[in-house]
Specification:
Distance between the termini: 102 Å
Order of helices and strands: EEEHH
Strand content: 15-25%
Structural class: alpha+beta
Largest sheet: 3 strands, antiparallel
Number of strands: 3
Radius of gyration: 39 Å
Strand order of the largest sheet: 2-1-3
Length: 92
């Protein structure tokens, strides 16, 4: 059941009361039995972890690749593959 804050209009006493959703009952002041009014309070929601803000859901930028790494992976032009010599077997 949700909790609501109430304030007495006579003695200014503030208290909490659990009431079911949709209830229109307003409790009387527990100190002086005066008329109370319902106070507006912020919701008690705590967002913890990643993904709750716009900047959390953006893909993270990839680090730039270095040119030196690319050169090591690709074969150099000076290096040639050893050429295969055709076989010179006589087939008589």
């Amino acid at each position: 059941m949700p909790r609501f804050d109430f304030k007495c209009s006579k003695c200014s006493y503030t208290f909490e009361q659990e009431l079911p959703f949709g209830s229109t009952d307003i409790p009387s002041c527990p100190q002086c039995d005066g008329v109370t009014e319902k106070l507006i309070s912020p919701p008690t929601i705590h967002f913890k972890g990643d993904g709750f803000y716009k900047n959390d859901s953006k893909p993270k930028p990839k680090p730039p690749k270095k040119k030196e790494e690319k050169k090591e992976k690709t074969p150099q032009k000076d290096e040639k593959k050893p050429s295969e010599k055709p076989s010179t077997k006589d087939t008589k």
